[in-house]
Design a protein that fits this description.
With 142 residues, the chain is mainly alpha-helical. The chain folds into two domains: 13-76, Winged helix-like DNA-binding domain superfamily/Winged helix DNA-binding domain (Arc Repressor Mutant, subunit A, Orthogonal Bundle); 82-123. It has five helices and two strands, in the order αααββαα. It has a two-stranded antiparallel sheet with strand order 1-2. A hairpin with a 3-residue loop joins β1 (66-69) and β2 (73-76). α2 crosses α3. The relative contact order is 0.09.
Amino acid sequence: MDIIINATSMTPIYEQIVDRIRALIKGGEIKAGEPLPSVRGLARQCAISALTAKKAYDVLEQEGLVVTVQGKGTFVADVSPNIVAEELNRQVEEEFAQAIAKARRLQLSDADIKELVTMLLDDTDDGTDGGTGTTDRKGATR
């Protein structure tokens, strides 16, 4: 399991670990029942405090993504597809909220924001660039 910590990030280290392990679980790279490194092993691997590693595992356990068995270790939980879907929806909502906040800081009106979202949805529906190109307000992709 490869976890890279960005020491200069504004995101706390334990959250970086949680995000990476969550992504590995949801991406199917680590499966239900697979053991995770011990708290001390993770701390050693990431060159962090064991308390930070423990906090990351505690968050994952609260989310239902891992289970800890006393004396045996921490294992990936058998995660239901509903939990995965809910978490993915939450992440998308968070990203939309950040994008809307940025648009409002740039003084775009709600109507302009809705128009942009509709335009991006139309781009992905018609099989064109999947929303990755730059599109002007008239719908021309540049």
